[in-house]
Amino acid sequence: MKDTDRDLVLRRNIAASPAQIWKAWTTPRYLRQWFTPAPVKTVEAVIDPVPGGRFYTVMEMPDGTRQASEGCILLAEPHSRLVFTDGLTEGFRPTDGAFMTASIVLRPARGGTLYSAHVLHKSTKDRDAHDAMGFEEGWGKALSQLEALAQTIRN
């Protein structure tokens, strides 16, 4: 299952419960607050956390340009696992330009949650491009934003 030549991984212990993190991931008003690393903003978010559900975001760059991302939820196990892709849209309809599939796993851990993001790419070229865009720094900063927000959410 693991293909380390084409995957990127981010793991961290988070001082929030799996339930809090799940709400931050699956509630659009929360997702908009943390999903992109500042100063980039998420200005639109739609997520239907069921298999085949829509996952749509619009990022706004500091210069005002916007970038939309359309995807599909593949698997949603509340408080435990969320898998989504940009290779499909709502209802499992294929897209023209698949880039990645991400699996977010939440495991209870001492003081909170072990958070694992495993991002699969179709080629090493795509993996390298994602890494060059600042995967570790960008996803890491967004994860810190997620942690800060999740700590304020009631279970």
UniProtKB/TrEMBL annotation:
<protein>
    <submittedName>
        <fullName>Polyketide cyclase</fullName>
    </submittedName>
</protein>
<dbReference type="InterPro" id="IPR013538">
    <property type="entry name" value="ASHA1/2-like_C"/>
</dbReference>
<comment type="similarity">
    <text>Belongs to the AHA1 family.</text>
</comment>
<dbReference type="Pfam" id="PF08327">
    <property type="entry name" value="AHSA1"/>
</dbReference>
<feature type="domain" description="Activator of Hsp90 ATPase homologue 1/2-like C-terminal">
    <location>
        <begin position="16"/>
        <end position="150"/>
    </location>
</feature>
<dbReference type="InterPro" id="IPR023393">
    <property type="entry name" value="START-like_dom_sf"/>
</dbReference>
